[in-house]
Amino acid sequence: MNKLLRILFSLVAVMPLVACHSVDDDRLPPAPVRLTFYTVAEWNLYGNPAALEYKMFIKEQRIPSNYNYTAISETGYGGILLVGDAFGMPLAYDLACPVEMRKDVRLKVDTEKNEAYCPNCGSRYDIYANYGSPLSGKAAEQGYGLQKYYVGAGAAGEYMIVTRR
Predict the structure, then answer these.
(1) What is the 3-state secondary structure (H, E, C) of the chain?
(2) Are strands 90-94 and 108-110 parallel, antiparallel or unpaired?
(3) pLDDT tens across 62-105, in order?
(4) Distance in angstroms (rounded) separating the CA atoms of residues 2 and 158
(5) Which residues does residue 92 pair with via DSSP β-bridges, in sequence order?
């Protein structure tokens, strides 16, 4: 039975890779991204989302208001949505809806369904388990996924950074 479950899990994990339609997750206009957490304490306070939690960063609106944005801080096209997947590993996406392609049309998070959605077009996205893939709405019909950003250890002494890939 254990072997059967492993085979089933492997098939489910591979299915998105062999699906007939590809997902376009690079539709938004290019925009600089750099969100820096210099210390473990700063990461734990501002950046470290627990499993199935999220945080939003929008430099122009100073969200969150107590985060120390610097001259080199950039939050992408519409802002950064930083989430913790089911295991608490950080993932980051642009907050702009790839269908609407406007920096002022930002995703909202539905905490009951654990999905992000666009308040304008109604598209829904899997932000915790399937890397910003579209679930329904125009995004699913047209194959538009969320713009993903890199989250990892900094190379120049920063503890963690969020950047473009």
Answers:
(1) CHHHHHHHHHHHHHHHHHCCCCCECCCCCCCCEEEEECCHHHHHHHHCCCCCCEEEEEHHHCECCCCCCCCCCEECCCCEEEEECCCCCEEEEECECCCCCCCCCECEEECCCCEEECCCCCCEEECCCCCCEEEECHHHHHCECCCEEEEECCCCCCCEEEECC
(2) unpaired
(3) 999 999 999 999 999 999 999 999 898 999 999 999 999 999 99
(4) 42
(5) 82, 149
Q: How confident is the model at residue 157 (pLDDT cuts 50, 70, 90)?
A: confident
8 A C-beta contact, residue 116 and residue 130: no
| Block residue for tokens 């945080």 | 55
Structural domains of the chain in order of their starting residue, each with its CATH number: 23-163 (2.102.10.10)
Look-up of token digits 């492997």: 10
What would the two tokens of residue 146 be? 């969320």
